[in-house]
Specification:
Layout: E1 12-14, E2 20-23, E3 26-29, E4 34-43, E5 46-53, E6 68-72, H1 83-87, E7 90-91
Antiparallel strand pairs: 1-4, 1-7, 2-3, 4-5, 5-6
């Protein structure tokens, strides 16, 4: 498990088996895919981190966030992919 409070822009991650991204209320399997932390954003309902995936995921192309997956950084936040799924990722760098 990674410590989400230690994530930095540029960190490389590999998602655990069973990790799901959320896009327009649809779940997209991103198991074992890798990506790079691109940015952090504070919204009304909490902090979020954006991870640009290395592999193009057709369901994400053309969306507001492009080939990025948005994860909430707070167990109480709404929107984005699961905080727990992010914690289960493996840090590669």
């Amino acid at each position: 498990m990674i410590r989400t409070d230690k994530l930095e822009v540029g960190d490389r991650l590999e998602f655990a088996k069973g990790t799901m991204a959320v896009q327009n209320r649809d779940e997209i399997d991103i198991s074992l895919l890798q990506g790079t932390v691109e940015s952090f954003e504070k919204k009304l309902d909490g902090w979020f981190v954006y991870v640009e995936l290395d592999e193009v995921v057709p369901e994400l192309v053309g969306t507001e966030d492009g080939n990025c997956v948005q994860f909430n950084l707070d167990e109480k936040s709404f929107g984005g992919a699961s905080f727990e799924d992010l914690r289960r990722a493996k840090k590669l760098t």
